[in-house]
Design goal:
276 residues, Rossmann fold, 2 domains, seven-stranded antiparallel β-sheet, 30% helix, 32% strand, globular
Length: 276
């Protein structure tokens, strides 16, 4: 059992941060790796990337958006409640090295993943430019943390309520037009956002890394649920990723697979609300 030590609601869009007691994971996990949790004996296995870790206090922090039944149940937990199973670290850790100027682009809960990834690149001595975006101001998360971490931070909102009016791709275009030499782009967020960024960076010939979080079950590569096509080859996000060359990912296939259970997930959530 893993006790919840802190709980915060971060944004208008049902975004929740839970700090969980997990000393063994906190001691070993690297930026970009993830965990799989199970709330109870009958619960499904939910993969979540760790946003923050504190090895000194033996805790990890996960940030997620309430979308389906399992995340709704997870989001309803309070300080002092416990998560039954928590397995990790899972996934391949990035090879953090000094590259030069890195533009990290995050949307939604992907901002939390991006922040943890960029800490690894910051420690390697890279120059970091952060771009975070959301539909409106109240959906922006971790602004203070990203401001502290990055050498420069750009914020965009779809409705213009905060930062620049537009999309994260508009911010990336403006950086390119400034003739900044960008050595790597890292994109984390909704799949359609990552696809749009990769389409743009392919034109600019900028290497691009994406963090994928497709449907997962066992987290060991045995079930095959998280398979993605990268460079024409089948990969498993849980053991071969979750980070891949964005220019090699078949995003159309990934979007189709991720949408397979959308209706079932909404139905399950609706029934759980009615039962509650």
């Amino acid at each position: 059992m893993h006790l919840i030590l802190d709980r915060q609601e971060l944004a208008k869009g049902n975004m929740v941060a839970l700090t969980v007691e997990a000393p063994a994971i906190a001691a070993k996990i690297k930026p970009g790796q993830f965990v799989i949790l199970r709330l109870n004996d009958t619960g499904e296995r939910v993969p979540l990337t760790v946003a923050l870790r504190d090895p000194q206090h033996g805790t990890i922090t996960i940030i997620f958006q309430v979308l389906g039944k399992s995340t709704a149940m997870l989001g309803s937990l309070k300080i002092g409640d416990a998560i039954k199973d928590l397995v990790g670290p899972l996934g391949l850790a990035d090879e953090f090295r000094k590259i030069g100027t890195i533009v990290g682009i995050g949307g939604g809960s992907g901002i939390a993943v991006l922040h943890h990834l960029l800490t690894g690149y910051a420690e390697a001595g890279n120059h970091l430019i952060g771009v975070i975006g959301a539909r409106e101001k109240d959906f922006i998360i971790l602004e203070d943390e990203m401001t502290t971490l990055c050498d420069r931070l750009l914020i965009t909102t779809d409705d213009g309520s905060y930062g620049a009016h537009g999309l994260v791709t508009d911010a990336l275009k403006s950086l390119v037009e400034e003739q900044i030499e960008i050595h790597l782009v890292i994109a984390v967020g909704p799949v359609v956002m990552m696809r749009a960024i990769c389409q743009m960076t392919r034109l600019y010939k900028i290497p691009t890394l994406v963090s994928l979080n497709p449907i997962m079950v066992d987290g060991t590569g045995m079930c095959g649920a998280c398979r993605v096509t990268v460079g024409g080859v089948t990969k498993f996000a849980c053991v071969d990723g979750p980070h891949f060359d964005g220019h090699q990912v078949d995003f159309d296939e990934l979007i189709q697979r991720n949408n397979m259970y959308t209706r079932d997930e909404k139905t399950s959530l609706l029934f759980s609300i009615r039962a509650g």
